[in-house]
Amino acid sequence: MRDESIRLGQFLKLANLIESGSEAKEVVASGWVLVNGEVETRRGRQLVKGDVVALGGQASRVSDESAYDDLPW
């Protein structure tokens, strides 16, 4: 993340939790996406650093390139 915030639909694709923008619309509207443990149905919700987005048993934290996460990739 390079700006102060990012939209949920954009983040889902960036984090490889979905494959396309149209898929984002579908999964968010269906109530399958959690933000910080709560169902979120607004694809345009603004996420900030530290927010955790979960979908289908996978989760990603919003961060910037300076964050160290100890992941191998």
Question: Any key phrases for this structure?
Answer:
4-stranded antiparallel sheet, alpha+beta
Walk me through this protein's architecture:
The protein is an alpha+beta fold. The chain is built from two helices and six strands, in the order βααβββββ. The strands form two sheets. It has a four-stranded antiparallel sheet, with no helix packed on it. The longest helix has 9 residues. It is globular. The protein starts with 5 loop residues before the first strand and ends in a 12-residue tail after the last strand. The mean pLDDT is 88.
Topology:
Blueprint: E1 6-7, H1 8-14, H2 21-29, E2 33-35, E3 38-39, E4 46-47, E5 52-55, E6 58-61
Antiparallel strand pairs: 1-4, 2-3, 2-5, 5-6
Helix pairs in contact: 1-2
Sum this structure up briefly.
This protein is of the alpha+beta class. It has helices at residues 8-14, 21-29; strands at 6-7, 33-35, 38-39, 46-47, 52-55, 58-61. 22% of the residues lie in helices and 23% in strands.
Global geometry: globular
Q: Approximately how much beta-strand content do the residues carry?
A: 15-25%
**Strand elements, count:** 6
Tally of helical segments: 2
